[in-house]
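Extended Data, panel c. Modelled sequence:
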Amino acid sequence: MKLFSQTSSRLLQKKTIAVTSLDMPRKPLIRSSIHFYHVTTRSNDKCWFALPLEHVWELSIKALAKANRDYPAEIYQYVLMANHYHLLIRTPNENLDQFMYIFNKNFSEQLQRASGHINRMFGSRYKWSLIENQRHLLNVYRYVYQNPLRAGVHEKCEEYPYSCLYFRAKKLELAVPTHELFSLRPEMMDFLNQRVGTQQEQQIKKGLHKARFKEPTVRDY
């Protein structure tokens, strides 16, 4: 009887811990009109989008354009991958939450209509990290554009067609206005395509999980 009681107690503790972790509150948004946010959202269960990526790209650009009309912001980077996206954005009106609500809602609804799926499209709410350091910003800038390189789908950042860099490099018009953070001079393109070590990639990835991005600085540029 004593053994049963101890076992039940352990199970109850595990259940309590699990429920507590699910009920953890969202981190409060740090509002800024001058600093940059890295934002990412992943598809439900990390599955690939149930549509050709070219179609997903078109839908996401429409959703971005709508969000930008409703709650204007400054978009500097947007890269769409097979099951998630990366966004580098600045919000002069301190309205990241409003912008992202419209973007993800509209994007999700379009995906549902086009694919015929009724389940939610994204696994969780968007994740953000505020970048307040210029050197950190440069490292994140390269990290975002190198997503296709890490996935092994292209050898150069500017060759990946589902990235605003592709449109900038080829001087093509994009349906949503984007801003330039750095000029695409040859030295910058070399920097963007220079692969960094696994350790630094992991440091950047961990840093992007923090409300205020932090990682060891590695070099000046």
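The helical segments are 2-22, 53-70, 96-115, 134-145, 147-151, 164-169, 186-193, 198-207. This feature is highlighted in the accompanying rendering.
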